[in-house]
Design goal:
The protein has 424 residues and is mostly beta strands. It is built from 6 helices and 21 strands. Strands 10, 11, 13, 15, 18, 20 and 21 form a 7-stranded antiparallel β-sheet that branches. Strands 1, 3, 6, 8 and 9 form a 5-stranded antiparallel β-sheet that branches.
Amino acid sequence: MNSTSPLQNFGTATVMRVSNVDRSLLEFDLSSIPGGSNVASADLRLCFTSILPLAIGRTHELNRVTGAWTESAVTWNNQPAGSAGAPVTYAVPLIALDCVHLDVTSGVQAWVGGAVNEGWRITDQNEASAPQVEYATREEPATGQRPLLTVTYVAATATPTATATPTPTATLTPTATATPTATPTPTATATPTATATATATATATATATTTPTPTPTATRTPTPTATPTPTPTPTPTPTPTATPTPTPTATATPTPTATGGGTVTFSANADTWAGSLQPATNHGTETTMLVGPQEYSYLQFDVSSISGGATVSSASLRLCRTNGSGGARTHELRPITSGWTESGLDWSNAPTAASSYDASMSVPSSVGCVTADVTTDVQAWIAGAGNWGWRIADTNPSPPQVDWATREDPSSSQRPSLSVTYTP
């Protein structure tokens, strides 16, 4: 959740942030642990993906949330209020990709004991001056960095209820007291000892009823439980979130003027970022692309709908800053000179870039959108130069981090766009 984008939801992002303007939420489903169980230990693992230098050693805390929220709908404006229990505190490590293990036994015990489980909120202990830190989310491509909760517990023993003490009442052995009736008639009633019919009544009739009844019950009950109800959980519903819907927006059909030229606005057909601290990680599906001390961003537009030989009178690139630290600064737009793909690029295989650049972007001091004149580069592409887009970097070798919206941003007005005015 971000206070500078109070209506924006970040539920599909691969990172969750903590800073002076960011808070994160995290929840685990514990319904498989029987209610009333005794939690011996609960360990929460959180992994960091990006840490600004000033954030090293700062104290972050986990607070149990008491208000309801959902991953796909929570924003800064509707974030859950209230917390319960003492917070769990810990120090931000020295480098990204490190993980911390936190003892959250008391919080998990409360939930297993019946308290409503709305998860945790992660914040800096001093939010007013907190540099940005990024944690991996459950959408992080590297499974070893996703949040993990390990719980050791002992289920409540339901055996006391099995003390079916009523069974002693089945000691109908007092019927044996019917034998004294044999003593009053010891004389002539010696022949009536053939009244062993009492023993006969207890014989075959009782045993006959016990044998048939168990066999039918043993056959029917197991087969229904074999109904594989778990198999319907093919929750590959996340796969639709690889929403390649932005690509249709690149309907690069120019709106020509009467003279045959015109102005056309393109949507990006590829954008991503790469970081030296995660050299093998691809960020092609994220809603932001980062530019910072260890991060470059990559951006490409397909302008092939403009015929070769056209004259570009103007070309304007529009980008929107969504977050980050530091004030106004300058980013360079350096043409890329080799191929790359949004889903395959990472730091270790990043494409090469030109030795110089003609276009630059004035970064706003806070959240907002800006444009850059990229006429020279677009004219070259239309004239036949290889178009692999731009690499975006800060002109300062040790800059603070800036986040730009990508074509996956939920708000279409924030996504990168390229407006080209040309004549045939």
